[in-house]
């Protein structure tokens, strides 16, 4: 986690120094916004893939697939997990990918994009955890950011944990959920994957039995939204 945060700080500091040198800040600012918007889309695609394909034995992603399956069986445990534990894998990924970019890239606009995108991805599990929080326990600033749609809302994410378990995959702001679900983008991808590879997504079968274990707990928490 420390390495991930340090990597992000270097990325933003290098971008800020570039802005000071060039006196051009509009490009990096727009790049930051684009990075934030696209990170939500990326979080949705990744979450959809992890939820629907592979198993605990899958190379590289096995641990994440297993953790997300566990999360669907026991959604509220995420609020009890330690901060560092929730972010360890994503922070490692950010360090591995962004550190070399920090060393090689000097363009403040590209660095601003990379910093915002990878930062939002790295903290997406925290945004996810807050989406499972109850109103009276979340900090006021988090509630306000959720209410205006800057962070994924509690009501939007709780829909992901309800039947038919095939929507609202995005975990940063939830901006893309309406588009992806409205145009049935993931359903189309699932059909293409099935046609080409013969791979059935988990959402097509059996989840109503596997993922409803804590439905009563969930309903109790929903009453506080
Ligand atoms: Zn999920
Ligand atoms: Zn969740």
Automatic annotation (TrEMBL):
InterPro entries, alphabetized: Chloroplast_FAD_CarF, Lipid_desat
Entry keyword RNA-binding: no
Alphabetically ordered keywords of this record: Membrane, Signal, Transmembrane, Transmembrane helix
Membrane topology qualifier: Multi-pass membrane protein
Subcellular localization, as worded in the UniProt entry: Membrane
A Pfam family the protein falls into: Lipid_desat
One GO CC annotation: membrane
Signal peptide: 1-18
Keyword Plastid: no
Primary subcellular site in the record, as a coarse category: membrane
Span of domain Lipid desaturase: 36-204
Family: Belongs to the fatty acid desaturase CarF family.
Protein name: Lipid desaturase domain-containing protein
Naturally occurring in which organism (per UniProt): Solanum verrucosum
């Amino acid at each position: 986690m420390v390495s991930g945060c340090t990597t992000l700080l270097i990325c933003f500091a290098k971008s800020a120094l570039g802005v000071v040198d060039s006196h051009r800040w509009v490009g990096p600012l727009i790049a930051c916004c684009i990075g934030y918007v696209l990170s939500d889309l990326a979080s949705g695609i990744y979450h959809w893939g992890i939820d629907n394909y592979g198993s605990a034995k899958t190379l590289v992603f096995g641990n994440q697939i297993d953790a997300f399956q566990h999360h669907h069986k026991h959604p509220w445990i995420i609020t009890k997990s330690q901060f560092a534990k929730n972010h360890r894998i994503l922070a490692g990924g950010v360090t591995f990918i962004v550190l070399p970019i920090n060393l090689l890239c000097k363009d403040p606009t590209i660095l601003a994009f990379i910093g915002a995108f990878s930062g939002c991805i790295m903290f997406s599990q925290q945004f996810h955890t807050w989406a499972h929080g109850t109103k009276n326990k979340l900090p006021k600033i988090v509630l306000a950011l959720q209410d205006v749609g800057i962070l994924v809302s509690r009501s939007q994410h709780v829909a992901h944990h309800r039947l038919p378990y095939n929507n609202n995959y995005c975990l940063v702001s939830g901006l893309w959920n309406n588009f992806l679900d409205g145009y049935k983008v993931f359903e189309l991808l699932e059909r293409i994957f099935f046609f080409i590879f013969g791979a059935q997504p988990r959402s097509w079968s059996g989840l109503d039995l596997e993922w409803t274990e804590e439905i009563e707990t969930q309903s109790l928490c929903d009453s506080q939204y």
